[in-house]
Amino acid sequence: MPERAAASPITEAGEAARRRVLGDAHVDRARDDRTEFDAPFQALITDAAWGHVWARDAIPPRERSMLTIALLAALGNEEELRLHLRATANTGASAADVREALLHVAVYAGVPRANTAFRIAREVLAEVAEADGRAG
């Protein structure tokens, strides 16, 4: 699919934030895989989630990451949860930070959601640690 015309400042900020958090490989893959059908959705999330929210500097990336993980876990969005757990390698959120966020999920959104999220977090954080050459 051809590239869009000149990007707005929000789009540019969103693209940069998305790359910082998710990495170039993920963003390039999403861009390369987009179709005419889902291109408007890709533009929406780049501008709204990444340009209007993640690009803001009022909350550091570590805390924004913890909020995102807690919300995704509470809502049961497992695929996106995995994505943002992998992104902790770029946001500075530690395994201990994730644990604390998921404890909040258990109390405020329910034990079943947190139970699933803890299982997913154990798996993903172990993969991240292994990829980084660290112990899980």
What does this structure look like?
This protein has 136 residues and is an all-alpha fold. The protein folds into two domains: 9-54, no CATH class; 61-131, AhpD-like, CATH 1.20.1290. Helix content is 76%, strand content 0%. It has helices at residues 9-22, 24-33, 39-54, 61-75, 78-86, 88-91, 95-108, 111-131. Helix 4 crosses helix 7 and helix 5 (78-86) runs parallel beside helix 8. The longest helix is centred in the last third of the chain and has 21 residues, at 111-131.
Concise summary:
This protein is mainly α and 136 residues long.
CATH topology of the largest domain: AhpD-like
CATH architecture label name of the largest domain:
Up-down Bundle
Secondary-structure class: mainly alpha
Q: SSE order in H/E notation? A: HHHHHHHH
Number of strands: 0
Rg computed from alpha carbons, rounded to a whole number of angstroms: 16 Å
Strand content: under 5%
Tell me about the biggest sheet? none
Quaternary status? single chain
Tally the structural domains. 2
Regions with little confidence, pLDDT below 50 for 5+ residues: none
Number of helices: 8
Would you identify the CATH H-level superfamily of the largest domain?
Answer: AhpD-like
